[in-house]
Amino acid sequence: MTLNGHNKHTKLARPSLGSFGRNEWAILGAPCTVIKLLADEVIKALAPDYKGAYADTTHADDVTNAPGRLGAGAVLEYTDQLQYSQLSYAAPLSPFQLRQHFSQADFVLVNGNHQQAKAQVLILDENKKASLQKRVSQLTNVELILVSDNINEVFDFIEEAVPNWRDIPVLKSDDLQGIVMFFKSKLIQNLPKINGLVLAGGKSQRMGFDKTAVKWHDKEQRYHVADMLRGFCNEVYISCRAEQQELVDKDYAVLPDTFTDLGPYGAILSAFRSEPDSAWLVVATDLPLLDETTIQHLVALRNPAAIATAYTSGFDGLPEPLITIWEPKSYPQLLAFLAQGYSCARKVLINSDTSLIPPANPDALTNVNTPDEHDRIKQLLHQKIASHD
Fold first, then answer.
1. Binding residue per annotation — 257?
2. Residue 40 annotated as binding site
3. DSSP of 198-210
4. MobA-like NTP transferase domain location, by residue (predicted)?
């Protein structure tokens, strides 16, 4: 509600989510059993590379009582089934809760006979023609048409409801390979772009001077790192505190913290708040030995099915959070940890589905935080330069 043109709610960039997730398709036009079997086959075929999920509604007439402790009045029941975990809720899940639960899935297939999704896969079957006609209003974004053996032409009501139907791929309903390739191509096409984020908002208290401005390589380190990232990212931003914006060269895009007093954690959240559908290649400025080869290796081994792709530390074997590709699915995870009182990016990586890779050059991950470390690395760089002369 607005009063005299004033909007009392902060305008936020919302991720492009549907009922369940970013990539979701409702399959409709066939019996529920056919839809479930097709979903099984597609999820199984894509499982090596993508996390699939399925949404449906049970309609077994004999299920009248709530299961387990829900019938006794519990609002939630968690059961460790050893091979899988099960959560049962007493109350219906809101759209916000559903999206939270499905946030780690790369794609969601939906039984369109009971649930809706932002895109649809349409099965044309003469035996389900009348049923499909009742659901014409759900056909908001048909991306694939599957035809059964008993179909020779598209139904008249489909031509009317889907004006661009001639431009939509059409496959036989038993062409599993073609169907799987359709979904795979869509997931590749929808792969989140990578933006670069140079962490330059620290106060350098241990160093005693601004370490982002040290000229390890003929220019200030924050600009040196930003220039390296440009070859691998769609856009590159220098992350800083609000009061530092005017200190950054106008040739570089700035992304000030909107989650304040949280250090690097706040910088990552601020990046996702700005562009929640992008992946973020986050790099700290206190890595003077970092080179393009190390960045290229990380990008080449990116696993978008994980929440993040990170190097393991040569020191303790734990993830290096500040040279990491954070996927869009990590945004709700980061917020969830913050809600529980944690603001450690490494803790999120350790306790989440993170893809970890050993660094090709462990020395490239050496960070500098104190004057003694600064002097040691400076001397090492000078020796390298001298050896090349």
1. yes
2. no
3. EE-----TTTSS-
4. 196-349
Instruction: Confirm or deny that 53 is annotated as ligand binding.
Output: no
Token pair for residue 360?
């090709």
| Predicted confidence (pLDDT) per residue in 57-70, tens digit | 986 655 557 778 88
Annotated binding residue at 372?
no
What pLDDT does residue 378 have? 64
Burial call 182-200: b when 16+ CB within 10 Å, e when fewer: bbbeebeeeebebbbbbbb
Residues of 131-147 as b/e, b for ≥16 C-beta within 10 angstroms? Answer: ebeebeebbeebebbbb
Q: Determine whether the annotation assigns residue 277 to a binding site.
A: no
Q: Provide the CA 191 distance to its chain's centre, in angstroms.
A: 9
User: Residues 346-371, buried b or exposed e (16+ Cβ, 10 A)?
Assistant: bebbeebebbbbebeeeebbbbbeee
- Return the pLDDT at 209: 43
How far apart CA 65 and CA 86 sit, in angstroms, is 18
User: Tell me: the pLDDT tens digits for 343-377?
Assistant: 999 999 999 999 999 998 888 888 876 665 665 66
Least Cα distance to 319 among 377, 359, 290 occurs for 359
- Residue tagged 């350098």 (tokens): 204
CA separation (Å) from 118 to 7, 14, 69, 181? 28, 15, 35, 20
Asked whether the beta carbons of 381 and 291 are under 8 A apart, the reply is no
Q: What is the distance between the alpha carbons of residues 198 and 238, in angstroms, rounded to a whole number?
A: 5
- 186 among annotated binding-site residues: no
- Sequence-distant (≥ 6) Cβ neighbours of residue 373 within 8 angstroms: 367
Give which of 308, 287, 322, 292 is closest to 356, Cα–Cα: 308
Q: Pick from 85, 84, 56, 91: which is nearest to 70 by CA?
A: 91
Strands (E) across the chain are located at 2-3, 6-7, 24-28, 52-55, 76-80, 85-89, 107-111, 119-124, 142-147, 170-172, 194-199, 236-240, 253-256, 279-284, 308-312, 319-326, 354-357
pTM for the model: 0.90
